[in-house]
């Protein structure tokens, strides 16, 4: 059965969209990663124009991160003070991101920019996942004990703030900067930025690992909401029908993924995911480097 | 039921046509194409009568639009859009259906003046674009090629059925990506290379039902739409967490 997506202006199979949302949800449930960075390229693969794919991805991210945040909140795993500081940076970053998006779209380079960013991002992420899981397979025990509290250059910055729940006393500029980078990616690519923020929160901010996913998800709700609203106003690319179908599939997928994930050995599947992510990067790179069948493309603008 | 009613209309047409002795009369089975949630393309029936012998040519024209054609160049191993040409007043949809090949039906000048046939479309380049003639021609060809490939420029020959000497009918197909707006359907009766009679039937392609409201609202009230989109997905996310609260 096909459904007409009113803002995109094209029909798409409901089943394909549900499977896509479900598949991304399944992977996020299984691996505990956000799915935004997978959602956008997959939507592009099934024929949704990149600018609409980014907006729908951000919109459905609002819903999926609400679900995730509520689950983490019940376990008391959110540092709200830290979340708000991250958010302040995130909102600024998203404004810049959406502006860059609109500029690139005006110049006719948005599709290539998105593909290019994804090649770099998925490539780095895939390699990182492969290395990390291979290391876990080969050396089951942690290699070295990290110091409880490391002092680095970030501790010299002003505006020091106390984050009680994370047991940290650091400059607010550091989490705000991390949030800014995540928000920028969110604005340009429709991703939550969790894959960038989670390692940054662990290694740069030195937050307790248990608080990281919840705090990251909490602030992603608002950044994704801000991106959705800005995309709607600046670019008119938000398709609510598309976002809700993806979310519907995703909700089911996450729950299945969580259950399967509790029974399986993580590192083998992380290695598999790493391979999948690398394959997606190679596919996108091939699309950009192989001589296209038609060098010309057409955009119709009805005044 | 609908087909029977249509047949009655056709017969009535045939009868009235005979009385008034108008040389050409035509109408569509529907004057509105509604794009609804399940829209995957549609077709309309065009029917009419001719009181004189001759060929029938049907021209369907969609709302004019601006066409931006971009060309990729090989830059550092990547194919990147580096050049573009902008055309104004390009029909977003254009179809011809003729009983014989257009060249056999009318003189080239007649086709050119009436802009019948894809080759005779007036694709005006926006001024001051600094394109030499060869490149301009390449862009023009690319525009037509892309439109043909997406099914928005169509030329069909021999797809008109004649019933007896007077009645004729043809099917006009619209793809799922048909642009929204005001259309015109022109029907020409041609003989000896010239136009004997013509008739224009209006047609409108609109988004209908919930979808039209959504896309209109998204355009006119972008901010409110964005807020609603956020609220709807946030609500859906909250609802989704309810069944799993115990965990």
Structural notes for this entry:
With about 300 residues, chain A is mainly alpha-helical. Chain A has one domain. Chain A contains 10 helices and 5 strands, in the order ββαααααββαααααβ. In chain A, strand 1 (about 1-5) and strand 2 (about 10-15) form a beta hairpin. Chain A is globular and about 55 Å long. The two termini of chain A are about 30 Å apart. Mean pLDDT of chain A is about 80; it is low at about 145-150. In chain B, a hairpin with a 2-residue loop joins strand 12 and strand 13 (about 195-205). In chain B, helix 5 packs across helix 6. Chain B has 2 domains: about 1-205, Immunoglobulin-like (Sandwich); about 210-245, no CATH class. Chain B is an alpha+beta fold and about 250 residues long. The interface between A and B is large, with 57 and 68 residues.
């Amino acid at each position: 059965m096909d459904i007409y997506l009113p803002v995109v202006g094209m029909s798409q199979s409901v089943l394909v969209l549900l499977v896509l949302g479900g598949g991304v949800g399944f992977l996020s449930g299984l691996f505990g990663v956000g799915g935004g960075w997978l959602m956008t390229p997959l939507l592009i693969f099934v024929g949704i124009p990149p600018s609409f794919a980014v907006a729908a991805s951000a919109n459905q991210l609002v819903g999926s991160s609400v679900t995730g945040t509520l689950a983490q909140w019940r376990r008391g795993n959110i540092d709200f003070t830290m979340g708000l500081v991250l958010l302040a940076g995130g909102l600024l970053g998203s404004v810049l991101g959406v502006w860059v998006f609109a500029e690139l779209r005006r110049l006719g380079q948005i599709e290539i920019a998105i593909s290019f960013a994804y090649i770099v991002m998925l490539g780095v992420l895939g390699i990182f996942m492969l290395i990390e899981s291979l290391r876990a397979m080969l050396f089951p025990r942690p290699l070295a004990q990290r110091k409880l509290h490391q002092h680095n250059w970030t501790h010299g910055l002003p505006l020091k703030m106390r984050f009680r729940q994370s047991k940290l006393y650091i400059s607010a500029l550091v989490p705000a900067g991390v949030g800014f980078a995540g928000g920028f990616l969110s604005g340009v690519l429709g991703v939550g930025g969790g894959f960038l923020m989670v390692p940054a929160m662990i290694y740069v901010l030195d937050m307790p690992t248990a608080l990281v996913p919840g705090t990251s998800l909490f602030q992603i709700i608002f950044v994704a909401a801000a991106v959705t609203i800005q995309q709607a106003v600046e670019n008119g690319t938000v398709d609510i029908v598309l976002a809700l179908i993806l979310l519907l599939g995703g909700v089911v997928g996450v729950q299945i993924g969580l259950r399967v994930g509790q029974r399986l050995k993580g590192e083998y599947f992380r290695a598999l995911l790493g391979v999948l992510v690398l394959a997606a990067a190679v596919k996108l790179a091939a699309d950009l480097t192989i001589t296209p069948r038609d060098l010309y493309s057409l955009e119709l603008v009805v005044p | 039921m609908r087909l029977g009613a249509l047949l009655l209309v056709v017969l009535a047409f045939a009868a009235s046509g005979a009385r008034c002795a108008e040389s050409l009369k035509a109408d569509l089975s529907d004057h509105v194409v509604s794009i609804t949630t399940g829209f995957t393309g549609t077709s309309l029936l065009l029917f009419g009568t001719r009181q004189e012998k001759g060929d029938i040519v049907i021209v369907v024209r969609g709302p004019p639009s601006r066409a931006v054609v971009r060309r990729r160049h090989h830059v550092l191993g990547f194919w990147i859009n580096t050049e573009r040409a902008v055309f104004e007043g390009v029909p977003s949809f254009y179809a011809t259906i003729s009983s014989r090949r257009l060249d056999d039906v009318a003189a080239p000048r007649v086709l050119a003046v009436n802009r019948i046939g894809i080759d005779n479309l007036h694709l005006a380049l926006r001024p001051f674009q600094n394109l030499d003639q060869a490149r301009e021609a390449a862009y023009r060809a690319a525009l037509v090629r892309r439109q043909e490939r997406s099914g928005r420029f169509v030329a069909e020959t021999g797809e008109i059925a004649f019933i007896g000497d007077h009645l004729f009918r043809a099917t006009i197909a619209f793809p799922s990506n048909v642009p929204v707006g005001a259309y015109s359907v022109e029907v020409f009766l041609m003989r000896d290379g010239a136009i004997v009679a013509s008739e224009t039937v209006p047609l409108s392609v609109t988004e209908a039902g919930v979808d039209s409201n959504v896309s209109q609202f998204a355009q006119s009230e972008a901010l409110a739409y964005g807020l609603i989109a956020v609220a709807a997905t946030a609500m859906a996310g909250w609802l989704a967490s309810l069944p799993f609260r115990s965990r």
